[in-house]
Structures are given as structure tokens and as C-alpha cells.
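stage 2 :: seqdesign
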């Protein structure tokens, strides 16, 4: 067995090209957007800067790193993608500029796998071209989002149409999306609770789809919407995947999408650690630099070790996703679950320590840390809450023990 963490020269060149592009194009654009507060002061100029960066990414061939060449993408595997996503997420807008941002990125995988040829032409193609945006509408205020078998939004058949009624919230990107992948209950009495839901493609705007508000969150009001759905009619051709397959589709979508979050979170954590070290080398108190104090070295050491663990976990989970594409018997769910839990918590801890080392400056918005901290908090419960992942991880360990007399299978199934 070969264990080799180096990239081929061609892929290393791609990684460096992404890094250079982020430094030379995205960082200056982002600095301009932030310093002139273009988002709120001059919307046209804001869009011009954003779309200009996208056009340059496309021209440079740094477009859709997660998609195959057939869809205009870079055709990278998940291990290679981890490197590119991590490079792009060193900046806030990087993933968006490369058109590999959530939730579009997960929706593209979903459409590619589950869509009919017509659905791919109508929805996937424009998403890949960057001319449409999407959202994924599953969570509801009335029931626990952690348990999709409780979904109440329902759809019933009327001739060639489905009629949908329900209530969704925290639907990222819904405010600007051209369509949604919506999960609704279609089965009253499924064989198993996981077979109650079905996915539909909903054009936005549509009669019966109402955006109630963009929910104000601890990181502002940035496009997580509450949606009312009243007698919304969709043609049966807009069903995505089979009837009762909504849960399966959600699970398929969430595996790689969760790992893509981890790849971006690693970049954020590394930025926070870089800043922690830099600050500690430049701040003097009680007779020495902060970097010379053991208390600060422990913060740096713990963060360094945890970031290293996170990188290894993400690379291994990505490797298993790639392997599952060649051999469907390879199961990556346990590795993705452990990586998602670990990286989300590591991210919160490392940013928190970096803020600590920066003192009042870290608490201010003069550095990106405060903003990063606000965003990092949701990582511990969105796309699977910590406790739900822990429940599944424990179930896998117990199951492995019962099946084989060893927990080995549940700890990455590695040859060690
Ligand atoms: C910024 C942001 C963006 C989001 N974007 C989207 C989106 O685009 N589309 C979408 O559909 N949803 C989205 N969500 C919703 C997200 O997926 C849900 O918040 C998540 O699934 C958890 O559901 P919930 O909030 O209803 O919490 P609940 O399910 O009510 O869980 C609350 C808490 O209960 C505990 N808990 C739950 N189950 C268990 C268990 N089995 N054992 C022990 N403890 C448990 C956990 O501590 C959990 O954090 C987003 C949320 C945020 C914050």
C-alpha cells in the first residue's frame, strides 16, 4: 500500500496557481469591498467587483474545482479538491469566486447524481455556468432539523402536479436563488421512516413560495431565509430522484458537502493560527514577547496539533470518498462524520485562542477574527449537530465491536 501525501507536479502547479490567484485577485477585491463597504454603499460596484473576479477565475481555468470537465469543471478528485478548497477559503469570497461555495456546490453534486437529463440542462448547466444560484430547503422551525423523518412540509399529487404546503427556515442563499431543492413529505405510511420524503426542484419566484424574512443571526442578516409555502404547484417532472428518496438524496448530498465545509474551515483555522503566532511575536508584556511565554506556547502548540489532526482526517475522508467512486463497497460516512465533528470544534477552539492572544484587538472588527468566530459557531450544529455525529460515531464503534470483536473498523479502518 502506498501512503503518499505529495501532489503530482501538475496538481501542485494547480494548487499554487489557486494560491496566487487568491493573493493577486481575490484578496485585493475583498479588501476593496470591505474598506469601501461596497455591499451596502454601492451595490452595482459591489457586483461588478465580484463578477469581475469570477470572470478572471474562469479565464484562468480555476472554475468549478469540484465538477468534472463535462460540466466545465477542473475534474479534481476529493483529495485534490481538499487542497484547492483550502486555498480558496483563505479569503471570504474565494470559494464563491471559484464557484465552489455552499450550498451551490452540494446542489451541483446532487443534480449531477440524481437529475434527469432535462433537469441537468435546466438547473445544473446554468449553476455550473454561474448564471443561476440555488438553495437547499429542508429545515423547519416547528420540528428538530436533526431528524428529517419529522419533516412536516407535505406534498400531495393532483393530476400531473404536486401541491406543496409547509414552512422552512434557515434556507441559505434563498434570498438570491433562482431555484430550490426542497424536501417535502409525500408518504403517509412509509415502510421505514426514512422513506417518507421526496425532493422537488422549485423555481424561484413561484406562486406559493414566499420569503417571510432574512433571519437576523449572530453574524448579521446575510441570506438565511424563512420561507412559507402555500399551495405551491410543481409539475411531476420536477421531482428530483424517486418518490420517497428524499432522505437518501439528502444523505448523498451531505457527505461530500460536509467535507467541503471542513476543507474551508481548515483554511480559516490556519489563518487564525498564523495570526496568533504573528501577534505573539510582536506583542511585549512582563519582560518578554508573548511568544516566549509558556502559557501562550501551549495555545500555539495545541492549535498546531489540532490543525494537523484535522488535515489528516479530512485527507483520509476525502481519500475514502474517492475510493467509494471506484468501489461502492467502500463506506466513508464514519470518516466524514468524525472529520466534521472534529474540524468544526477545532475551528472554534483555534479562533477563540487567537482572539485571546490578540486581546481587545481580537474582539474588535479591525481583524477578521471576530467575524470568523461568529461564522464558526454554526459549524457545531449545522449539517449535523455535534451530538448527532457523536451518536452515529458511537453506534459505528459499538457495531464494529459486536460484528468483529474489535473497534478497529470504526477508527478509520486503517492498516495500523
Ligand atoms: C447559518 C446556518 C445555515 C443553514 N443553512 C441551511 C440550509 O441552507 N438549508 C437547510 O435546510 N437548513 C439549514 N440550516 C439549518 C441546519 O441544518 C439545522 O440548524 C441543523 O440541521 C439542526 O437542526 P435544528 O436547528 O432544528 O436543531 P435541533 O435538531 O432542534 O437540535 C438542537 C440541538 O439538540 C441536540 N440534539 C439533537 N439531536 C440530538 C441527539 N440525537 N442526541 C443528542 N442531542 C441531540 C443538539 O445539541 C442540537 O444542536 C442552517 C443553519 C444555520 C445556523
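stage 2 :: out
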Amino acid at each position: 500500500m502506498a501512503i503518499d501525501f505529495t501532489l503530482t507536479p501538475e496538481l501542485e502547479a494547480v494548487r499554487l496557481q489557486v494560491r496566487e490567484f487568491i493573493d493577486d485577485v481575490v484578496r485585493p477585491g475583498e479588501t476593496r469591498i470591505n474598506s469601501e463597504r461596497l455591499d451596502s454603499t454601492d451595490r452595482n460596484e459591489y457586483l461588478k467587483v465580484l463578477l469581475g473576479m469570477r470572470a478572471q477565475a474562469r479565464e484562468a481555468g480555476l472554475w468549478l474545482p469540484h465538477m468534472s470537465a463535462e460540466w466545465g469543471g477542473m475534474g479534481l478528485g476529493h483529495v485534490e479538491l481538499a487542497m484547492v478548497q483550502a486555498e480558496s477559503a483563505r479569503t471570504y469570497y474565494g470559494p464563491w469566486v471559484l464557484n465552489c461555495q455552499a450550498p451551490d456546490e452540494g446542489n451541483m453534486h446532487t443534480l449531477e447524481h440524481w437529475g434527469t437529463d432535462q433537469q441537468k440542462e435546466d438547473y445544473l448547466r446554468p449553476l455550473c455556468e454561474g448564471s443561476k444560484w440555488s438553495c437547499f430547503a429542508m429545515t423547519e422551525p416547528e420540528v428538530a432539523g436533526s431528524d428529517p423523518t419529522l419533516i412536516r412540509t407535505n406534498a400531495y399529487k393532483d393530476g400531473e402536479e404536486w401541491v406543496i404546503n409547509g414552512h422552512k427556515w434557515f434556507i441559505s442563499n434563498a434570498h438570491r436563488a433562482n431555484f430550490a431543492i426542497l424536501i417535502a413529505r409525500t408518504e403517509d405510511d412509509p415502510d421505514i421512516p426514512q422513506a417518507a420524503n421526496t425532493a422537488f426542484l422549485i423555481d424561484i419566484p413561484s406562486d406559493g413560495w414566499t420569503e417571510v424574512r432574512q433571519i437576523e443571526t449572530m453574524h448579521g442578516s446575510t441570506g438565511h431565509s424563512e420561507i412559507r409555502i402555500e399551495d405551491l404547484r410543481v409539475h411531476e417532472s420536477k421531482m428530483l430522484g424517486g418518490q420517497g428518496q428524499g432522505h437518501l438524496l439528502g444523505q448523498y448530498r451531505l457527505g461530500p458537502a460536509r467535507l467541503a465545509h471542513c476543507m474551508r474551515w481548515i483554511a480559516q483555522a490556519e489563518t487564525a493560527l498564523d495570526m496568533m503566532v504573528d501577534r505573539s511575536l510582536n506583542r511585549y508584556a512582563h519582560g518578554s514577547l508573548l511568544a516566549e511565554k509558556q502559557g501562550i506556547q501551549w495555545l500555539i502548540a495545541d492549535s498546531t496539533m489540532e490543525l494537523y489532526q484535522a488535515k489528516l482526517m479530512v485527507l483520509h475522508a476525502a481519500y475514502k470518498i474517492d475510493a467509494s467512486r471506484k468501489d461502492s463497497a467502500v463506506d466513508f460516512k464514519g470518516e466524514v462524520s468524525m472529520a466534521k465533528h472534529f474540524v468544526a470544534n477545532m475551528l472554534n477552539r483555534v479562533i477563540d485562542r487567537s482572539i485571546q492572544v490578540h486581546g481587545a484587538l481580537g474582539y474588535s472588527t479591525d481583524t477578521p477574527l471576530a467575524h470568523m468566530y461568529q461564522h464558526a459557531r454554526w459549524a457545531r450544529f449545522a449539517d449535523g449537530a455535534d451530538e448527532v455525529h457523536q451518536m452515529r460515531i458511537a453506534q459505528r464503534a459499538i457495531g464494529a465491536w459486536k460484528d468483529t470483536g474489535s473497534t478497529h473498523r470504526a477508527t478509520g479502518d486503517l492498516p495500523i
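stage 3 :: structure notes
- The chain has a mean pLDDT of 95.
- Strands lie at 134-137, 154-158, 161-172, 179-185, 197-203, 209-214, 224-235, 239-240, 284-285, 288-289.
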